[in-house]
Amino acid sequence: MEVIINPSAQAAANLAARKIAGVVRAKPSAVLGLATGGSPVPVYRELIRLHQEEGLDFSRVTTFNLDEYIGLRPSHPASYHHFMWECLFRHINVCSERVHIPDGLAHDIPASCNAYETAIRDAGGIDLQLLGIGTDGHIAFNEPASSLASRTRIKTLSERTRRDNASFFAEGEEVPHHVITMGVGTIMEAREVVLLGFGAAKADAMLAAIEGPVTQMVPASVLQFHERACFLLDDASAAKLQRADYYRHVFANKPGWQRV
Questions:
Q1: Is 234 a catalytic residue?
Q2: Are 164 and 135 in contact (CB under 8 A)?
Q3: 190: CATH
Q4: From 67, 127, 164, 189, the catalytic residue
């Protein structure tokens, strides 16, 4: 596990975008796992810039999103279908047939979840998975107490997560109680993981995930066991880390061949 503390959220987002671009350039048919929420937005803006100004080619890339609300139509402004097309896909040359987002309107949700897992396997597995982190340490919508071996499935959101996500919905509109989400076990099978966590509100979660024990009560902590997990923080989210100075030292003294 690598911890990189950046001077700002934008600097961290730019680094994440460079990592993703490096994977796509090295493997044009790469499989990317993508996230939603506030943290990935500056990453997607930088990827759009790299596509439009530097020719980063997504035409052969396959994508799998982490999650989707149950009961929201894809055109709903708060759906993750809508988010991804507005924030990234319509601005790059990704092939729509290669875009995969869980179906929150599926008639048979367990069968749909199993099909999602099969599609990931059939695509060859995820090369790089982008993640955010919740204020309680959840990843995707794997709430505290989720199984660390879980697969794509239905989950019930905690009231804390629903409050955190209310800003994405219209005033007075109810945040759904249920979602489809990739499981922790599914995420751990990605060949590389990049987790974003910005702002003082994420400091406790980052402390627990990086320096605390591995526990299902902090699902992000399982990434301590991942061979190629990278946590990208800003100064505010890193404020409570006991080893922050060491993480900065490590990054500043990387050998040239390890730099992005």
A1: no
A2: yes
A3: 3.40.50.1360
A4: 67
